[in-house]
Amino acid sequence: MKLITAVVKPFKLDDVKDALKEAGITGITVSEVRGFGRQGGHTETYRGAEYKIDFVPKVSIEVVVDDSVVDGAVEAIKSGAATGKIGDGKIWVSDVDRIVRIRTGEEGVDAV
Amino acid sequence: MRKRALRIISGLGGVVAVLAITPSVGFAQEATEVQAILDNIWVFIAGCLVFFMQAGFALVEAGLTRAKNVVNIFAKNMADAIIGILAFFASGYALAFGGGNDFFGDTGFFLQGLGDLNEMGGSGVINLSHGTFFFFQAVFAATAVTICSGAMAERTKFVSYLVFSVFMCAIIYPVVVHFTWGGGLIAQISIGDAVYSDFAGSGVVHMTGGIAAAVGAFLVGARKGKFAADGSARAIPGHSIPFAILGVFILWLGWFGFNPGSELAADNLVTGVALNTMLAAAAGGLATTVVVWLKTGKPDVAFIGNGVLAGLVAITGPCGAVTPVMSLVIGAIGGVIVVFAVAFFDKVKIDDPVGAISVHGVVGAWGVISIGIFAKYDDAFLLREDAGLLYGGGFEQLAVQLIMIGIIAVWVGVMSFIVFGALKATIGLRVSEEEELEGLDVPEHGMAGYSNDPSYA
């Protein structure tokens, strides 16, 4: 099992969700996060003074999937989140040792 | 205070005509009584609108400051209403209107010794009873003190603010009122035909609040992080633009009580004053929009809110004496001034999170000055037509207005300095550095404005 984490532009969340659903993914966890990558921050003005926003708002998506569907899921996120402009975000995949469904106690692939 | 009697009679024409259809011996008496009731009811309703400005001030201040201080802001505004009313009851009304000498009145403490408080005309101001007049003046006092709250936001000790609030509403502001509307020092000044005018209080209320705010903000010092090491001002964005702009709209509405209510009678001039008030606010907002857009490239809505308020503060004094077109000019100049005033106070390192010193202090002074330039009609203070420079009134009116500004600035400046200075030297004016960084809400008030506990989400 793998954990796919993706940090994407907030307004692309719906597209990513739809693409994942289409790829057969049944659940995702979403968090509002802030950060910066190569895009850096941007400046805003407030009452005549400029100030820099270093940490840009993003959405972080977490999906746990069976090894067999990782590539499909990553592709779905990539296609859903892409605008082609700087700041589209990143996707990374990591190993998951154990997973438990709280209600039934099921473990492993059954719990995904 | 205001000598309206002659004008009210013209307002009576309609009522008299209707009553004349059924001739009766007492009809003139009845009409007089109807007029008196209308005067009292209108001033009461106007007072309600002014009272609601407390909500506007609270929202503007809360919106333009950070979420970690929102409880403190609302607590201070709550306190201003409570203290303002009680202090004005205890001593403010007496010092302001209780006869006495040129400096302060001496009768009517706790509203005692004023006879029947409900007797129409009992206050000596047109047809107003003491009850009506006190109600209207008390909500004005609460407005004057609230101005300080915003300028000193996010770093002032709550208890110190409370102490100042008492002094402001019980002594400092009432004496300014006595100097002017109470017939004291400033009201006694005349140069040629020129005597002071300040219809609803650009100077008496707003500049008074603005000067106290400037002294307070100077003595309490800037918020941590407001000024960079090289001395440049940094933006500390407020946490809710919707709060701030809703507050501006509430204040704008409240001003339709503040200025037209200051006619202190239900007559044909009320709506003219309202018209001038409305126009000046719009002109102030537009002028600020243009200046800010050109200056920074974006129409900063928080600043435009300040511009609307600047237009309103500017027209507060001249609203009874100027034409609608000149109201536009006065409001627009106010809207331009406020942008540069905010930049100026950033430059001299006086940290005013909401722009209160600029809006109320600087533009308040402009409102007082504008009477010397634009006054055309007799607003019942000027006692003559064409008093303004623009209408051939000469420089006398302008000179009287400037003297008025000087006297108010000295009295309020010195008194605020003494009170804030004494507080700073004793219990302290400022919270600790840790408290400021954490936000004042939990250390000062024991609660957060917006609960952080996820189980309450």
Features of the shown structure:
heterodimer; A: 112 residues; alpha+beta; Alpha-Beta Plaits; four-stranded antiparallel beta sheet; two-stranded antiparallel sheet; 2 helices; 20% helix; elongated; B: 457 residues; mainly alpha; Ammonium transporter fold; 2 strands; 63% helix; globular; disordered N terminus
Structure in words:
The complex is a heterodimer of chains A (112) and B (457). Chain A has one domain (2-111): 2-Layer Sandwich (Alpha-Beta Plaits), CATH 3.30.70.120. In chain A, β3 and β4 (49-53) form a beta hairpin. Chain A has helices at residues 13-22, 70-81, and strands spanning 2-8, 29-35, 42-46, 49-53, 56-65, 89-95. The model of chain A has no long low-confidence stretch (mean pLDDT 92). In chain A, α1 (13-22) runs antiparallel to α2. Chain A is 20% helix and 37% strand. Chain A contains two helices and six strands, in the order βαββββαβ. Chain B is mostly helical and 457 residues long. Chain B has a single domain, classed as Ammonium transporter fold (Orthogonal Bundle). Chain B is 63% helix and 1% strand. Chain B contains 15 helices and two strands. In chain B, a hairpin with a 2-residue loop joins β1 (190-191) and β2 (194-195). Chain B is globular, with a radius of gyration of 22 Å. Classes of the chains: A alpha+beta (112), B mainly alpha (457). Chain A binds chain B through residues 44-51, and chain B through 64, 233-238, 292, 295-298, 300, 302-303, 306, 339, 342-343, 346, 355.
